Fold:
Amino acid sequence: MTKKLLLSGSLLVLLLGLPARAQTPAETRSFQQEAGDRSILFRGKQATFYRFAANGTPYWDNAGFKRGDIVFEGNTYYDVSVDIDAYAHRALVHLASGPFVVELTPDLTPSIVMDGRRFAGFGPDEALPEGFYEILGNGQELVYKRVDKFLQSSLNNVNGKAIGYDDPDYRDNVYRYFALDCTYYFRDATGRFTRIKGRSALLRQFPERKRELRQALKALHIKSGDFDRYCTELLKLTER
Structure:
């Protein structure tokens, strides 16, 4: 049965298929005290716990939960513990001192700020495919970065670790791992989005300054694989 954490007023009911009288009042009171005015965040679906063994993680990065601010259903909640599931594209929120973890859909979570990094959530009928995006830049032009994690398998060892031998759904010597795919979109000053696939595609968004920007960026000696920094530095040069 799908488990959900629901909040009605100040009363949290954890649906586990048990009658309400079977819930532990002490646990409910403890949750209410810990969550305070942030309790509304915990009325969503309980976050998925991935029980399969795989190399890597399904999350945006490997840094784990971070303190941040989140906008949910039009309200801003400050200094909460947040992460992003890039496999399911859900925001994750939990009480740092408790076991409660819920997932929030991107259509109800338009903004997340954690560790100084900004993220935007897009619903199914918005300008970008549904999911979460990191916002690069601070001016009128921006780059939106999407991270997707996919579960894949290989007959060869991945990252030096043998993962998946004991899974009955996979035969011996098959390794499972989370593959990473990043997609980038340029947003111009009018709000129009264009998918970009590399440095040249980004430079083409500034045809009148293309040569000037290329020379300035070349002087920074940005590594070939560091497209995030390339976007950030270019956008700094074009801020207005």
